[in-house]
Amino acid sequence: KMAADTSVDILQKVLENEILQSTKVVEEHLDAEIQKLDQMDEDELERLKQRRLEALKKTQQQKQEWLSKGHGEYREIPSERDFFQEVKESKNVVCHFYRDTTFRCQIMDKHLTVLAKKHIETKFLKLNAEKSPFLCERLRIKVIPTLALIKDGKTQDYIVGFTDLGNTDDFTTETLEWRLGCADIINYSGNLMDPPFQSQKKYGTSFTKLDKKTIRGKIYDSDSDDD
């Protein structure tokens, strides 16, 4: 018993010593940083300030460039020809292939409107699938809604219906944001290993039915039985 107590005491002392050592290292590092700032002369401080300003200016210029190319808002493009032009001039593009009569497209619209404002590094577009048969065939779009995720002019990934979004009509904007982050089409600051829909209490409760399979290459809604 006594030997066990002694080993626990030794362990405790070792642990306390470790904590003290790491605290000391942090304090020394902070002291060194403060000292470095204290020892900087006017010129060095000015140079540091200039570097910060340059970085800010660069960020601002990039932002302006994105906005001039139509980033920052969720827009409808009128034709397939416009699609090629829009995709050519932006590195990251999300294009929603929609149909007026499809209820789930309106749900997607709501979330994309929010994300377009938040992620101006990416261009968010929508295109009527019925007006773009060539693109739908070329990109093999069979179910509506489908999001085509395009990087450097090449389609990298698709979000088809709501299957990847927790299989529910009331998925959150954060869930769609996470899925776009997985495709590296936006700058995502959350944890990709932790999908937001896992923590939703109503997981999958209001999902009506599974996305329909395509028959003979026809395009189907993911939310209705009628054509």
From TrEMBL:
Predominant place of localization: cytoplasm
SUPFAM superfamilies found in the cross-reference section: Thioredoxin-like
Entry keywords, A to Z: Cytoplasm, Cytoskeleton, Nucleus, Phosphoprotein
GO CC annotations on file: centrosome; cytoplasm; midbody; nucleus
InterPro entries noted in UniProt: Thioredoxin-like_sf (IPR036249), Thioredoxin_domain (IPR013766)
Location(s) in or outside the cell: Cytoplasm, Cytoskeleton, Microtubule organizing center, Centrosome; Midbody; Nucleus
Alphabetized Pfam families for the sequence: Thioredoxin
Domain of life according to the entry: Eukaryota
Record has Cytoplasm as a keyword: yes
Domain Thioredoxin: 80-163
Primary role: Significantly diminishes the chaperonin TCP1 complex ATPase activity, thus negatively impacts protein folding, including that of actin or tubulin.
Subunit structure: Forms ternary complexes with the chaperonin TCP1 complex, spanning the cylindrical chaperonin cavity and contacting at least 2 subunits.
Protein name as it appears in the record: Thioredoxin domain-containing protein 9
Species of the source: Grallaria varia (variegated antpitta)
Underlying gene: Txndc9
